[in-house]
Amino acid sequence: DAGVIQSPRHEVTEMGQEVTLRCKPISGHNSLFWYRQTMMRGLELLIYFNNNVPIDDSGMPEDRFSAKMPNASFSTLKIQPSEPRDSAVYFCASSSPQGGANTGELFFGEGSRLTVL
Amino acid sequence: EDQVTQSPEALRLQEGESSSLNCSYTVSGLRGLFWYRQDPGKGPEFLFTLYSAGEEKEKERLKATLTKKESFLHITAPKPEDSATYLCAVQAFGNEKLTFGTGTRLTIIP
Fold this sequence. Notes:
The complex is a heterodimer of chains A (about 120) and B (about 110). Chain A is mainly beta and about 120 residues long. Chain A has 1 helix and 11 strands; from the N terminus they run βββββββββαββ. In chain A, the strands form 2 sheets. In chain A, strands 2, 4, 5, 6, 9, 10 and 11 form a 7-stranded mixed β-sheet that branches. Chain A has a 4-stranded antiparallel β-sheet with strand order 1-3-8-7, with no helix packed on it. Chain A is globular. Chain B is built from no helices and 11 strands. Chain B is globular and about 45 Å long. The chains are: A mainly beta (about 120), B mainly beta (about 110). The interface between A and B is medium-sized, with 27 and 21 residues.
């Protein structure tokens, strides 16, 4: 199994530009999570989907952030316009019907490191 | 709001020197407490799930324990390959999301 695939791995952009991060979950997994990791705040949940439907987006910082899951094999996290304080590592994770809700086992991608200048 | 506090922030041990990492939590109805390992430049990797006070789980040199207020990750005779950041997370009943602590960065010196 290829695991959770995220792209790009690194993104450097200028303030005000639009950023789109992409995620392909593990096949058969029905829950998808977007987390942001910084040194100061650790891993913070931004939003999660179950069966492609957003369940909890209370962690999305503000209207500049949006996430979509058009089908079971693809999700995007968009930041428009980006700001320097958005610099962080963004992780996507997925879990199976028997996993996340039961054992807490999430499978994480390798992350997208975003730097906004 | 669910909260997880981990201590210490960083820990350096000599190879073979046993120690424990702490995870204190507050959650409205604990469904599970989870330990993850994160290597530099990688995503977190699942280690254990604990569901109730008194429960213990073991994996190689790691043993996780749980009380009503905190969890400990005991590391026995660690090796350099155990160096990583160890993350603790909690999940409340009725909610699939995990709330993470900021982690303990463990370094094992040969």
